[in-house]
Amino acid sequence: MSSESLTSRLGYLLKHAQQRLALMNSAALKPHGIDGRELAILLVLADHEQESQQQAAGRLGIDRTTMVAFLDTLERKGLVTRRAHADDRRKNIVELTEIGREVLRNATEAADAAERDFLTPLSPRQGEQLKAALLAVIESS
Amino acid sequence: MSSESLTSRLGYLLKHAQQRLALMNSAALKPHGIDGRELAILLVLADHEQESQQQAAGRLGIDRTTMVAFLDTLERKGLVTRRAHADDRRKNIVELTEIGREVLRNATEAADAAERDFLTPLSPRQGEQLKAALLAVIESS
DNA sequence: TATTGTTATACTCTATAACTATA
DNA sequence: TATAGTTATAGAGTATAACAATA
Q: Which chain A residues are within 8 Å of B14, Cβ to Cβ?
């Protein structure tokens, strides 16, 4: 029998699991004044200092024109700064501010708590197996 | 250590796994002339005949105004028909046509093949465990 | 009055094209 | 000429508000 109901299809399960975690993440991050994508940007910036905003955008898989608006927002919130690259003044080096680092720390902890909450129905081992399985199917590029 | 890189976060893994399967699904469905959401609609219609289009929209979690455009497209493709409900002429009963049933059959097989392809890096048992884990975290409403 | 389907409209998100300043 | 950042604009996708038909 190839015919199965929608709600048992893998695509449905993945999409709804993703949406549910995104919702929980969003709620957990709200007190810290950022959303999920902003946290992703802060994580990339913290992991790769001294990179141009276009390089950071590339890591995040978002367009450089979209990156401009995101950084505008984060800069307005005082979480990042832009400064011209010393050797190539066309490039902007984007860095976290002190406040940015603190928000990143607290927001990451909140997101971690949301993940643990999300994984409650699973045993710790099953949670690890879920992450390992997702990593495996992603990397089979 | 709470700080981890973006690409090892559960949210990132779920989102990218979902996107990858959606891409493979889209490619597999293309020869059958429908996309993933249209397949979802056909599946719901096949599973719940004699329902109004608003009831079907509810099952899919999409707005009734959005449903109108989707059904317009599917009707134009000859896959579904609308007819007034006998007892309540405000309602539209939506049904699959013969062609609609055949497209659903073939498209479902193609989507099944895409899922198997997607799960290639995992053992059959691991694939089942992945689906079970996703179902568990979704249902813990 | 309330509900179903529909239409018109607005809003969000993102990408494309064109501009500037640097190289 | 080419590239980084920016801006203006357009497109996809979806939701909100208003309307006609029916209950």
A: 14, 17-18, 21, 134
Task: Write out residues 35-64 of A within 8 Å (CB-CB) of B.
Answer: 36, 40, 43-44, 46-47, 60
Widest distance between CA atoms in chain A? 64
The residues spanned by each domain of chain A are 8-139
Query: According to the 3-state scheme, what is the secondary structure of chain B?
Result: CCCCCHHHCHHHHHHHHHHHHHHHHHHHHHHHCCCHHHHHHHHHHHHCCCCEHHHHHHHHCCCHHHHHHHHHHHHHCCCEEEEECCCCCCCEEEEECHHHHHHHHHHHHHHHHHHHHHCCCCCHHHHHHHHHHHHHHHHCC
- Predicted model pTM: 0.94
Interface test with B, best of A1, A2, A8, A14 (most B CBs within 10 A): A14
- A46–B9 C-beta distance less than 8 A: no
> Which residues have CB under 8 Å from A34's CB, separation 6+?
A42, A77, A79, A103, A107
Span B55-110, pLDDT tens digits: 999 999 999 999 999 999 999 999 999 999 999 999 999 999 999 999 999 999 99
Q: Which CATH number fits domain B8-139: 1.20.1110.10, 3.30.1060.10, 3.30.470.30, 1.10.10.10?
A: 1.10.10.10
What is chain B's length?
141
From the CA of B105, how many Å to the C1' of C7? 33
CA atoms within 13 A on the CB side of A67: 22
